[in-house]
Amino acid sequence: MKILVCISHVPDTTSKINFTDGDTKFDTNGVQFVINPNDEFGLTRAMWFKEKQGASVDVVNVGGAETEPTLRKALAIGADSAIRVNTPATDGYQVAKELAKVVKDGEYDLVIAGRESIDYNGGMVPGMLAQLIKANFVNNCISLEIEGEKAKAIREIDGGKETLTASLPLVIGGQKGLVEESDLRIPNMRGIMQARKKPLNVVEPAETATKTEAVKFEKPAPKGDVKLIDPDNLDELIDLLHNEAKAI
Amino acid sequence: MSVLVYIESEEGKFKKASYEVASYAKEVAGMMGTSVTAITFNAEDVSELGTYGVDKVLKVSNEKLKNFNAEAYSDAIKQAAEKEGSKVVVLSQSANSKYLAPLLAVQLEAGYASNVVAVPESTDPFTVQRTAFTNKAFNFTKIDTDVKVIGLSKNAFGIKEVQGDAAAEDFSPSLSEEDFSVNVESVDKATNKVTIADAEVVVSGGRGLKGPENWGMIEEMADILGAATACSKPVSDMGWRPHSEHVGQTGKPVASNLYIAVGISGAIQHLAGINAAKTKVVINNDPEAPFFKAADYGIVGDAFEVVPKLNEKLKEFKEKNA
Ligand SMILES: Cc1cc2nc3c(=O)[nH]c(=O)nc-3n(C[C@H](O)[C@H](O)[C@H](O)COP(=O)(O)OP(=O)(O)OC[C@H]3O[C@@H](n4cnc5c(N)ncnc54)[C@H](O)[C@@H]3O)c2cc1C
Q: What's the whole-model pTM score?
């Protein structure tokens, strides 16, 4: 089985979010970038397939040269080779279209992406990719088993779960649950050394037009101070919730 | 060229978020000088949709569509949009809508903006405000395509009632075998429990509660308020509560009217997931807990003393205001 794991290069979860150029660009100053958490679960699941069932695992990112350390980290975790599509990621559709080309060229059976990236939270790349390559698609995937050509997946729905079956080729939008947090792998020295020798292929993008454009950013208005309530005066809280906040 | 809105239902009944997307579609249709068409799947009585601004309802009745199926639903909505010449399609941000929207966008060659929180800033160019960086910022997105798909965040617009009648029309999209190549084998839903996605009130507990055996008082509060229960990430990681209750950047988003956090420190990743909640109440024994900076109302105190007392007061309040 040939597996492709899509890796989004995102600001670390603790990053302070700021903008530059008249609030039109994300300020990367002092920001640490990491593998998107949802993708990390997917990558670990792919490692599991590789070790237990036999599979090759490639990782891919659409982005500039600055994303290579993130791809190297994925190689250090155990992916066999990496592909970087050499163009900045500007919109979900453009990314999906570039990925579609990589999937077709590489004839992958299974594509694991994250349900969303934690920067733009679009939640659109996996679904768009699946539709573009006419593969089956399962979103919010929290469990995946594969036997031959058949996949059995569990996805989270509002208020429960759903079990689905589909045949390969398949694209999933994965999240926590695909593997447990405690199963996530931290690259060790050996992995890091090996990663240096593994191929990281840079491919040029197809000319893809975008469909949307992020024109400007804004930070939420600063919040007023918290109203502290004496624990011996809980009636005040109930009164405020009822009359001021109209929340109960 | 009406605005098309996908109205979700469950066992024939509309979900509350559907009234919000209908209200939003009405507003957008007003800006564009057009009407609102809704599409429903296996919903019986659709007349009440008129109250939320829908002019016409395309009723799909098909046993095969009894269970949600992203590919088939998307195919049907696409055909409805084409039939109506819709330039804008509006969906909620439920798990199901988020599943089908990207498929639909590709089929319609449309630009898709998710997590939209306001009516378009302008319709020409078509620019909408959406959340980004998991609620730590907003992003204004311009959609350049002829057809646009909009995913509206919950509680971002509200429900607006109007006077109106919805005319119903049967609609039979043509579906192929390929639409059903992903099969739903079984659905496992916690019945009679309010879900985080639908809840108006969410009561959440963190590591400060010390152990799963102390969740009784959290569940009691949720019971009194008709709320959903939630938790911070370490709580679900340790198995005190199910994963489905984990809220935050890597968990579920919360957009309820009220969020009550008990024994949660308010780490940046937790706050990111609950920023969209309207009113936040924090109970924590550490006056320095970062959550107090994000909260509207705070109580510095021991959860094990405050929560049982608060539950009694809430019960009294509910009885008086029943
Ligand atoms: C990649 C990544 C992603 C993450 N994503 C998320 C996420 O999505 N959601 C999330 O929640 N976290 C997330 N985290 C974890 C986050 O950083 C925090 O560790 C977590 O939110 C802390 O949970 P907590 O507040 O319950 O626990 P703690 O930090 O242990 O805080 C417990 C709080 O309870 C208070 N307390 C203790 N005893 C009492 C008492 N008797 N009465 C009242 N208060 C008491 C303490 O003062 C303290 O403030 C993520 C972390 C990483 C690295």
A: 0.94
